[in-house]
Recover the amino acids of this structure.
């Protein structure tokens, strides 16, 4: 009987601790995703500015280089452009919106990407670089906030997981 | 003498152009009769007016079912569709076409030129941009042979390559003739050894290049300077590509004239074109008159559309009587 109680207590503690880590992990994943987007925007600026590639090629290269959520959005936007009569802005908006339920970005981060899409490919080179730089700076700001939140909440949620587990065990014993 | 159209690289020029348009426009143009497609020279898009097809073999305004009508009826184009067409033609990359957009045209792969109309944005009294672009005149480029061969004999008479200016009003076949001559001179033939040709293709119309590689046949001994300003290109070619002949399109700036004189005095023949009704008109253009000194160009070919694009009206030896065809 004691053995079963101890086993139950251990499982409860492990479960709540894991839950705490999982909840905290969402913050880490957001930080990683924003970092990826920052790299993606920087690559895009290089390809459009110095490589002078057409937009679809630049997006494909960016997708290849960074992968993940930005890569998925870029590949989807290229597919939409090739298959229909979407404008670049419409294709980008659809790609970002479709991917949004599967990512950890906040509505503010998503707004940064959607704002960029309005100008993507549609203005001169100088303007393209300016908008990409602006989006990148907004992402840097988001990343800073996300890192702060990650540092704070990740530890907090981890500890909360353990404490919750201990409380449950104490109540049950 | 009239020039004859041939099919380039197995794909009809019409299809090459139409495949680049948005599906909504492709749907309408797919219904255009084959006879009209084969001879169509232009597809024109204007806001609140149906698509217009212009060509020797007939044309008209295209209704939503693809039927041609002499006057505009159904199927008015929304400005948004024209904008989407421009974006698509630019491969959603306006940033790559800054200078072309400022000058009011862009060139598609295959050498098809798109003229642009819209609101001009001025900066310090000069056209800085066209924004928004509201009208598109898509000119369908076609390969032409035949007439060029016949003309070649008079341009290489006496075994000498004569520097030649081809003049005509727009849409009379200047670019096509230059391309044909470049190809023939480059390839050579009986009694005419192949020559090194450099094509300075500022507007990418002669070679219809993609990533610097000509999509049109310019001949086996031809080097291409694609997207290069004429004046700079001519000097670059002389310095580094040792051409026998430099070919370039649409002269009109003072710098072009200076560069051509440099080339001619460096022993390089020049084959070029300019807008003018005939040689006399060309000579009256202040930017071209210095080239009529008898030393720069020694032949002037006048084209018209009298018997279709590329009709050679006259070949004039400068300082001598014109010999009409």
């Amino acid at each position: 009987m004691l053995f079963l109680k101890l086993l139950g207590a251990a499982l409860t503690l492990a479960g709540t601790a894991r839950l705490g880590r999982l909840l905290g992990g969402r913050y880490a994943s957001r930080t990683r995703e924003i970092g990826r987007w920052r790299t993606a925007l920087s690559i895009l600026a290089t390809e459009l500015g110095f490589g002078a590639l057409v937009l679809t090629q630049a997006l494909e290269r960016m997708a290849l280089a960074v992968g993940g959520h930005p890569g998925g959005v870029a590949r989807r936007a290229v597919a939409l452009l090739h298959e229909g009569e979407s404008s670049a802005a419409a294709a980008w908006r659809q790609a970002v919106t479709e991917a949004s339920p599967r990512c950890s970005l906040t509505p503010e981060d998503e707004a940064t990407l959607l704002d960029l899409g309005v100008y993507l490919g549609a203005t001169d080179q100088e303007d393209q670089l300016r908008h990409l730089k602006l989006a990148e700076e907004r992402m840097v700001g988001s990343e800073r906030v996300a890192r702060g939140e990650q540092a704070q909440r990740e530890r907090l949620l981890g500890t909360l997981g353990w404490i919750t587990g201990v409380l449950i065990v104490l109540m049950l014993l | 003498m009239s020039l004859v159209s041939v099919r380039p690289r197995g794909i009809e020029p019409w299809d090459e152009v139409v495949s680049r348009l948005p599906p909504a426009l492709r749907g309408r143009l797919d219904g255009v009769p084959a006879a009209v497609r084969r001879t169509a020279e232009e597809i024109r898009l204007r806001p609140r007016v149906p698509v217009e097809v212009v060509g020797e073999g007939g044309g008209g305004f295209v209704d939503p079912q693809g039927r041609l009508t002499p006057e505009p009826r159904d199927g008015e184009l929304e400005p948004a569709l024209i904008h989407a067409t421009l974006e698509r033609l630019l491969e959603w990359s306006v940033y790559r076409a800054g200078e072309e957009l400022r000058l009011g045209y862009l060139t598609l792969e295959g050498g098809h030129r798109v003229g642009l109309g819209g609101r001009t944005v001025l900066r310090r009294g000069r056209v800085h941009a066209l924004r928004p672009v509201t009208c598109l005149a898509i000119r369908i480029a076609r390969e032409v042979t035949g007439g060029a061969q016949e003309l070649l004999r008079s341009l290489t008479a006496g075994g000498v390559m004569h520097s030649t200016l081809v003049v005509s009003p727009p849409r009379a076949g200047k670019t096509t003739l230059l391309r044909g001559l470049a190809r023939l001179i480059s390839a050579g033939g009986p009694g005419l050894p192949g020559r090194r040709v450099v094509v300075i293709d500022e507007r990418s119309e002669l070679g219809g290049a993609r990533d610097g590689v000509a999509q049109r046949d310019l001949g086996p001994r031809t080097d291409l300077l694609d997207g290069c300003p004429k004046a700079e290109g001519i000097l670059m070619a002389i310095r580094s590509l040792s051409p026998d002949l430099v070919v370039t399109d649409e002269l009109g700036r003072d710098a072009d004239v200076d560069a051509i004189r440099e080339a001619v005095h460096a022993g390089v023949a020049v084959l070029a074109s300019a807008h003018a009704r005939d040689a006399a008109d060309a000579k009256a253009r202040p930017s071209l008159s210095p080239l009529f000194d008898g030393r720069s160009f020694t032949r002037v070919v006048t084209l018209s559309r009298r018997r279709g694009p590329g009709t050679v009206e006259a070949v004039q030896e400068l300082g001598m009587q014109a010999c009409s065809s």
Remarks:
- The two ends of chain A are 12 Å apart (CA to CA).
- Chain A touches chain B at residues 48, 52-56, 81, 84-85, 87-88, 120-125, 127-128 (CB under 8 Å).
- The mean pLDDT of chain A is 89.
- Chain A is about 85% helix and 0% strand.
